[in-house]
Amino acid sequence: MNNLKVSLIISTYNWPDALNLCLESVLRQTVVPSEVVIADDGSTHETEELILHYAKSFPVPLKHVWQEDEGFQLSKIRNKAIAAATGDYIIQIDGDLILERHYIEDHIIFSKKNSFVSGSRVIMKKELSKKLLKTHQTKISLFTKGLTNVANGLRIPFLSKRLETYKNDDVYYLRGCNMAFWRSDLIKVNGYNEAFTGWGREDNEIGLRLINSGVEKRVIKFSGIVFHIYHPEKTRTGLNINDELLKQTALNKLTYCTKGLSQYLL
Q1: How far apart are CA 44 and CA 188, in angstroms?
Q2: How many Cβ atoms from other residues are within 10 Å of residue 46's Cβ?
Q3: Strands (E), the chain
Q4: CA 95 to CA 227: how far, in whole Å?
Q5: Which helix (H) or strand (E) is 204 found in, with range?
């Protein structure tokens, strides 16, 4: 394993029970990240108390980056977390995921300069999710009852790099909940575009700006596996506005956003 300094950024909002499982799965990793940064979009004190509890014994620095709850401001809190991160390589997930125990190791092995990575996820059904949240369990196998799209959970590392160009020209084929970037590339494109508010497309748009700037999109298959805890779909009010912003980035081949990461960098 190389000496790459990795920051794991976990975005969360008012779901400490799910974040608890996520952090437990981080502790079970074959390779732990250099630090963990919680990107908290305005959660109440329960989340803060959970993070403080973990921070007392966490094997690496555990940072809590919080902002006031002013609606869905994921781009903004991710920028703040990226600014607070000290790693050369940033792995980005959501706090409603349970990580397969090789997750960080897989991403480190898959990392390559001048590229960013998008992974997929295995979906857990409602009943399985309720059971794991109640029992605080994080051990899941592909034989666990209550999983869908199980193929996304197959771990066959030697196939991963053979499939890295899978749909790499499709900017809609990526998941913001499972991505990885070089911090220097994020600085180059000024991070997330904070014109995006409400659910959707902020991850597609930053991916498109990275591609426009010459950074290759790669897809990690059969490695970097995550299990998504069920929750009702978030409201998609305002998605048409975000779709238009994405369209303008494509039409104008933009590589930089005006209101982004730079405002938080020292």
Answers
A1: 33
A2: 13
A3: 6-12, 35-40, 62-66, 89-94, 97-99, 115-118, 122-124, 147-148, 178-182, 216-219, 226-228
A4: 11
A5: helix 202-212
Amino acid at 176: G
**CA terminus-to-terminus distance, the chain:** 31
Q: Please provide the size of the chain in residues.
A: 266
Six token digits for residue 178: 């499972």
pTM for this model (two decimals) = 0.96
List, in order, residues 6 or more apart from 18 with CB less than 8 Å away: 12, 95, 96, 133, 229, 231
What are the tokens at 119? 């992974």
Q: Is 32 exposed, middle or buried (0-12, 13-18, 19+ CB in 10 A)?
A: middle
Sign of CA dihedral 218, 172, 166, 163: positive
Paired sense of beta strands 122-124 and 147-148, if any = antiparallel
Helices and strands (H, E) in the chain, number of each type:
9, 11
Q: Tokens standing for 120?
A: 């997929």
Q: How far apart are CA 128 and CA 244, in angstroms?
A: 37
CA distances from 197 to 41, 135, 162, 193, 238 (A): 12, 34, 36, 9, 8
Domains belonging to the chain, first-starting first, are 6-264 (3.90.550.10)
DSSP-derived pairing of the beta strands 97-99 and 178-182: unpaired
**Chunked mean pLDDT (size 10), the chain, 266 residues:** 89 98 98 98 98 97 96 95 98 98 98 96 96 94 93 94 90 91 98 89 95 97 96 75 93 97 93
**Cβ distance 139 to 201 under 8 Å?**
no
